[in-house]
């Protein structure tokens, strides 16, 4: 395994782990604050938009061949 492959796999594992941890934090926050269904939806919507931005950036970089 080359160093570049190791970096790529580490990036995906690290970012994936952080995303799962953020989902857990938001779920815990919604549960502790008794946000209800709508409040929980809004919290996850905000998190989802951030995740969507990361995914779109990754796809654009791969499609356009930048970097």
TrEMBL record:
InterPro entries recorded: DUF2788 (IPR021249)
Keywords carried by this UniProt record: Membrane, Transmembrane, Transmembrane helix
Membrane spanning residue stretches: 12-30, 42-66
Taxonomic source organism: Microbulbifer flavimaris
Protein name: DUF2788 domain-containing protein
């Amino acid at each position: 395994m080359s160093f570049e492959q190791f970096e790529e796999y580490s990036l995906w594992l690290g970012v994936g782990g952080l995303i799962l941890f953020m989902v857990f934090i938001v779920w815990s926050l919604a549960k502790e604050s008794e946000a209800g269904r709508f409040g929980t939806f809004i919290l996850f919507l905000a998190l989802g938009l951030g995740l969507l931005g990361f995914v779109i950036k990754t796809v654009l970089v791969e499609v356009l061949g930048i970097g």
